[in-house]
Each structure stands twice: as structure tokens, then as C-alpha cells.
């Protein structure tokens, strides 16, 4: 059949005709708008870092690298150190990522690999996405009045039976790392689950069919084909979840105990950089504000390093499992 442009409909002509000058103008305008948006984000981040750096400069000059290695925060004596906060930030976020990431990827497998009917899948996805809409302070209140009382007998039993193990060397008498990390895991879970689900759905169905055609079982297909193929997307979700955990403030400020302490025990109180900023800033003097700005720069640096490492790992997995350069 020969295409006749004179007899074609308006939609056919639009598809078959070369782009007009107006089309070129629209494309150019959209391209420059995208460039402007990307540049605006970079400039905004640079401006935030610059403003924090200017206000933190006196503290940087006074305390230097000892600010990062110090373990005492005493405003009355102008002695500031954030090593316990760095430890608490990384430790609680890592525990939350292990728990929330494991359940998040498991939920993604459950929703995308034929374990549940399509209508039930929509219901489960909606419930999981609603978890991301709950305010942080509500999670904190739930942790104080529900989670901590539930954990106290469990912590006591673990301490009595496995007290020789560093993770359970103390008892939980109130706020501590365990309730903070568990609540943080619930807050991280929707991000990991949503992005992992999308990563599984982007895999062409013929990949799964080919694996079944070679005689693989369902779990062999999931573990040896689907997981490696979706690994870059799953890692992206884990990196975003870890970033969310690093910057979480209110729930941790209410549950972690806000004590400058470095300990492996899950039941000891601790502190994080974000909760330090939230709890100290309202009553801080000028010198302490400068130290808090220094702490904010440290938190930004940690987040940047985590994202760069996550991007490097993601690129490696894409080259290894997906053949992308």
C-alpha cells in the first residue's frame, strides 16, 4: 500500500511530515528549560553549602578536625565534638536500611512475581505508599507509647540470655537505638519497595519466559535472573532509602535518647547529627550555632559520600548484570 499524503488524515500528516519551525522552537525551548532547571538545582545546592560554610567558618577555624573526632558537646565550656553523633547517624541508618531494605525488596518480589492477585496487589501497594505519608512526629509518638513498651520485655530477655554479645550487652530502659532504628526502617521501607517494584516491572517478560523455558524453577528465576537484572534499580532504592534515614530528624530525636554515646548495644541511647540540630538549635547561642552549622556541613558531606558510593556501586552492577557501559 502506497502512502498518499494528500489523502491522509490530520494525525497521519502530523506523523509523516517533517518537523516544522514551530516544532524546532518548542524542542529548543524545552531543552533550554531543562538545562535551566538542572543548573538551578546545582546553584541552589552550592548556595546552601556556601551559606552554611560562611556561618560555620569560625567554628571550623577554632575546632578544626578535632570537631569530628571529639566526643563531648558542652556549650557552656565551648567544647564541641560530633563523633558520637556521626556514629549514631551511620549505625541507626545502617540497621534501618538492613531491616527496611530486606522487607522492601521482599515486598517488591511478592507484588511483582505472581504471588498475589492483581487487585490485591493494588491494595498492598496503596497501603505501603500510605506509610510514606505518615508524619515523622506520628511515628515518634507511636514509638514512644507502643514500640518501646513492646520492646522492653524482649530486650530484657535478650540481655539475660545473650548479654555477653555486644549487641545485647545492656537493657532497654527507654529510648535507644533499637526503637529508633525500627521506626526508621518502617519509614525507609516504602521508598525501597516502590523503586524496587518499578525495577522488577521494567524487566521484559520474555526474560522470565526464557528462564522458564530453560527449565528453571520459580525461585531460581527470581533469585538468579530477576534479582540480578533489577539490581541497579534496587540499589537506587536502597541509596535513596539510606539518604532518607541519614536525614531523618523528629522521629529519631524522640526515640534515640539524645545521649553522646558510642556503643554497639542496640538498647543503649545514642544521638544523631539531625536530632542534635533539631534539639539544640532553638536554645543555642551564637558560638553554639556556629558549631551546629559545622555539624550540618558534616552531615551534608556524609550524605554526599554515601550517594557517590551508591552511584559507583550502581554503575558497577549495571555493567556486570545489564551489560551497560
UniProtKB/TrEMBL annotation:
Main location: membrane
Endpoints of the signal sequence: none
Alphabetical keyword list: Cell inner membrane, Cell membrane, Membrane, Phosphate transport, Transmembrane, Transmembrane helix, Transport
Pfam families xref list: BPD_transp_1
Membrane topology classification: Multi-pass membrane protein
Localization per Swiss-Prot or TrEMBL: Cell inner membrane; Cell membrane
Stretches assigned to the ABC transmembrane type-1 domain: 86-310
Transmembrane intervals: 32-50, 90-116, 137-158, 178-200, 221-242, 291-313
Organism domain of life: Bacteria
NCBIfam families: phosphate_pstC
PANTHER family referenced in this protein's UniProt entry, alphabetically: PHOSPHATE TRANSPORT SYSTEM PERMEASE PROTEIN PST, PHOSPHATE TRANSPORT SYSTEM PERMEASE PROTEIN PSTC
Stated family: Belongs to the binding-protein-dependent transport system permease family. CysTW subfamily.
Role: Part of the binding-protein-dependent transport system for phosphate; probably responsible for the translocation of the substrate across the membrane.
Designated name of the protein: Phosphate transport system permease protein
Gene this protein is translated from: pstC
